[in-house]
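> call design_seq(struct)
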């Protein structure tokens, strides 16, 4: 197993440099550009739930067809995450931000101009592919730009923006669009407007550099030093003057060999247990989240509330999402990951059962709904923080993408079962199912190692296979 003492001199220098630099204006600029993209991703993730009642009115779309739109979106998101993870580890993190955002915008425009249902489905597939890749690469990049003491909060802020603000404001966005634009085709405006601000982010993405951790893992020491100088200066553009040589282990005799990023390593040794256990955990949390996002407006309409009132109620309940993301981001700095996940899963289970059996009036529906959402987003955010910390840099994007891809698949499939439970047993049946998901999450997060306070370069890896160790020895002696 790899220990802190076994970390190479250049990786120790990198971690020390990032810790010394802290958080500068350059970090904040990078964060802002990444967060703009994931905010609009969150709005798009809510889109089917927002337009569902309107599509039922204008096209006579069935609940099963609406469910299929969610299924195809999140299935494509899983594929997008896997593809992005492979390319991100082979060719770098940076380029995939722009590619995924272009796909996301193209899919939104296809939905806006779709003449028939199946074209909407095609558009949702393209949206999902870009959406999934965007989140996976954003989580990986943000984790790699920061030292251990800032990393959890930095990654957590992604879900403050997406799972928190994005999910909370999505119903308000729907209310605004449906108030300004009327008629049976008003849902087209919602899809179309989602594409416009996302395209504007492309201009800013040109200024996001590659992460120094990735560059160093590929043996590109000079480029890593350049990025570190940018971070230290606080500016992403402009003259650096006389750049400092932060990583100088090569000059002191260390042999730099690009790390072998064999993607199958995430399914070998100790990494396999981490991949599978966190994959199960994220299936539970994503399944609960997407079930609520997809079905709550339709459930409220079925109970006799108007479309506008249902969206307003959903907005109030989604305020818990923002609180949950803030809790997770703050706790990441002070509390071990597994403790946060275990306690929150227990609270989420209790809240789900209370909602299913006790939410008999509007006040209880709003309060308990906000509490369930708070727990779900706390769990999701902490998993986002936890997942990239489980893998070495050479396979971090792929390992993280696999975990998040499993979540996307669960997000596409679970609403089908949740909807069936609601049809058969009402809210009690649906939220009992969600409570069971929380229990499964609490059990699964006990298996991966705790990473709180550890350098990403110190996290123990799976033992190398004999042939891999031999190859590495041969390369280091050349």
């Amino acid at each position: 197993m790899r220990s802190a003492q076994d970390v190479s001199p250049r990786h120790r220098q990198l971690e020390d440099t990032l810790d010394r630099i802290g958080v500068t204006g350059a970090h904040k600029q990078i964060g802002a550009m990444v967060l703009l993209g994931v905010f609009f991703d969150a709005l798009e993730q809510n889109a089917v739930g927002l337009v569902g009642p309107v599509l039922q009115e204008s096209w006579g779309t069935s609940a099963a067809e609406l469910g299929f739109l969610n299924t195809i979106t999140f299935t494509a998101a899983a594929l997008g995450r896997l593809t992005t993870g492979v390319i991100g580890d082979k060719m770098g993190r940076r380029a995939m931000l722009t590619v995924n955002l272009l796909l996301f915008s193209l899919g939104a425009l296809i939905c806006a101009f779709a003449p028939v249902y199946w074209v909407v489905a095609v558009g949702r597939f393209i949206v999902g592919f870009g959406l999934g890749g965007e989140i996976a690469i954003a989580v990986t990049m943000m984790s790699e730009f920061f030292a251990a003491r800032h990393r959890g909060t930095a990654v957590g802020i992604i879900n403050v923006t997406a799972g928190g603000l994005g999910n909370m404001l999505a119903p308000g966005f729907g209310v605004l669009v449906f108030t300004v634009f009327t008629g049976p085709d008003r849902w087209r405006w919602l899809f179309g407007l989602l594409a416009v601000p996302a395209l504007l982010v492309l201009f800013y993405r040109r200024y996001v550099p590659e992460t120094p951790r990735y560059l160093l893992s590929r043996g590109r020491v000079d480029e890593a030093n350049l990025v570190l100088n940018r971070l230290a200066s606080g500016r992403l553009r402009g003259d650096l003057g006389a750049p400092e040589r932060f990583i100088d282990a090569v000059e002191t005799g260390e042999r730099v060999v690009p790390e072998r990023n064999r993607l199958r390593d995430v399914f070998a040794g100790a990494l396999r247990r981490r991949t599978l256990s966190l994959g199960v955990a994220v299936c539970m949390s994503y399944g609960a989240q997407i079930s609520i996002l997809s079905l709550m407006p339709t459930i409220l309409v079925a109970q006799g509330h108007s479309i506008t009132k249902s969206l307003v109620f959903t907005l109030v309940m989604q305020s818990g999402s923002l609180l949950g993301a803030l809790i997770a981001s703050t706790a990441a700095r002070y509390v071990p990951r597994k403790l946060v996940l275990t306690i929150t899963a227990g609270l989420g289970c209790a809240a789900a059962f209370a909602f299913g059996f006790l939410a008999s009036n509007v006040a209880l529906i709003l309060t308990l709904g906000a509490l369930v959402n708070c727990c779900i987003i706390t769990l999701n955010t902490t998993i986002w923080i936890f997942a990239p910390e489980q893998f070495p840099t050479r396979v971090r994007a792929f390992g993280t993408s696999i975990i998040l891809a499993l979540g996307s698949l669960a997000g596409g499939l679970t609403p089908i079962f949740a909807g069936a439970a609601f049809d058969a047993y009402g809210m009690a049946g649906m939220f009992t199912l969600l409570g069971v998901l929380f229990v499964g999450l609490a059990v699964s997060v006990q298996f991966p190692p705790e990473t709180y306070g550890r350098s990403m370069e110190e996290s123990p890896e799976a033992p190398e296979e004999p042939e891999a160790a031999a190859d590495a020895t041969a390369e280091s002696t050349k």
